[in-house]
Amino acid sequence: MSLDPDAKTLAQIGELLDAGGDFDAALKAYEEAAAIEPSADLEKRLDAVRAKSALARLPAEYRAIDDAAQITRADLAALIGIRLSGILAGARRGDAALITDVRNNWAATWIMSVARAGVMEPFSNHAFQPRA
Length: 132
Prior knowledge:
elongated, single chain
């Protein structure tokens, strides 16, 4: 005989996993609970744990921005690139941005994204100066 957990038990498991920082497992438990017994509360929990999971996957430098006394151009590009990714994808300019100093920067992907969209420009010497 097999015991299948009910929606309430799965939601409680999700809460424990979420509190322990295992967001992927919490997401799975909440999804299983919602499949058995959908509710607005479970949808709210699912949205919250998805956001936590996405944030946990971002570089540590990004997660440290909220606590920084001041931010760099790389930090700002990452904030814009992550929070406004949908808008930036539709705002691509025809000309390619040539930037010479971001290859090894943690935010290189987002720097290129905001530069291609024309939101943040490189300097006339093609440097972005990500640490400035």
